[in-house]
Amino acid sequence: MTSTGASVAPHVPVLVSEVIAAMAIHSGETVVDGTFGAGGYTRAMLSAGAGRVIGFDRDPEAIDAGRSLVPDPRLQLVQENFSQMDSVLAERGIGLVDAIALDIGVSSMQLDRAERGFSFQSDGPLDMRMSKSGLTAAEFLNSADEADIARVLRDYGEEPRARAIARAIVAARPVERTAELAAIVRRAAGFRPGQKSDPATRTFQAVRIHLNAELDELEQGLEAAERALKPGGRLAVVTFHSLEDRIVKRFFRERSGATPAGSRHRPLVAPTAAPTFERVAKPVAASERELASNPRSRSARLRSAIRTSAPHRKERLQ
């Protein structure tokens, strides 16, 4: 995707052909694009014959640009978290839908705009708010104590040097710019130019996930999709790192009745509940051709399944 405006064709989202195949859209169906972004999946859904697409995005800039990016009367745009999709659909008098797609994490639109503060590739203010409301990254890093920052880096960035990096951030405060934060992390992690991976990537990921409550949003969004899909409805979810993929994998495993036998350490969850999903597909990765043209697809994984007629589960994902 790109953020330079409607006059420039947005980048095609990852695994788009595979997502559309998993959604198996039939002519006239009502489908949901839970992460509209620049509208790449939505365009493909419309081209596949969808009769109506409801596009959700918490980012007001995505919604503002959406009508010009995808000028199709079959599209309805909603500025809301995808975790609220079932209640929003009900409020609008839309019944259960035929298919839902979710593309988890930060969008290229957001990454490409330095002023949004999601990336250290170009210097900008430390913001990272998907909805452009609430606490900024700078406000969090300049007010949280060292232990809290270290916990965020460890839990959401899987950063092995979380404590050292958190200590360095606190010592350097105030930190206001993306380039500042990246430099602090590199020094604390002992980064040398030419190393394969930049440790700042894990810190930026962790802070972003924390500020936007992304993992909670994903868990709640999967449950909302379960409630919003009609029997036979298809759910396709693309993730970009292991924390997200584990949540989706666990959700489909539990909801399809494939949860391993319980033990005294992990009792069975709702052992008598009927499966709400079936035909859980094996994870799909990007093809060699897509990898060559789109490096962002390197870590992408698509998981999909089909909704059964069983009532939705009332208990939360364990």
Task: Explain how this protein is built.
The protein has 318 residues and is α/β, with parallel strands linked by helices. It has 2 domains: 16-109 and 214-307, Vaccinia Virus protein VP39 (Rossmann fold), CATH 3.40.50.150; 132-211, DNA polymerase, domain 1 (Orthogonal Bundle), CATH 1.10.150.170. The protein is 40% helix and 13% strand. The protein contains 13 helices and 7 strands. The protein has helices at 16-23, 40-47, 60-69, 85-91, 108-111, 137-143, 146-157, 162-172, 178-189, 200-211, 214-228, 242-255, 288-293, and strands at 30-33, 52-57, 75-79, 97-103, 229-239, 277-278, 301-307. A 7-stranded mixed sheet has the order 3-2-1-4-5-7-6, sandwiched between helices. Helix 3 (60-69) links the parallel strand 2 and strand 3 (75-79). Helix 9 (178-189) crosses helix 10 (200-211). Residues 1-10 have low confidence and may be disordered.
